[in-house]
Amino acid sequence: NITSLFGSYEMDADGVRPEPSVTLVKNGILKGFLSSRTPMAGTNASTGSNRFGIDPNNPSAFIAPGSLHITSDEHMNREELMAALRKSAQAEGMGYAYIVRKIGGSTPFLYRYDLETGVETLVHSAEISNVALNSLRRVLGVSANEEITNYLYRDRIPVSVIHPASILIEDIEIYKSSNLNRETEEILANPLKRRE
Question: Which of these, 136, 93, 85, lies nearest to 112 by C-alpha position?
Answer without folding.
Answer: 85
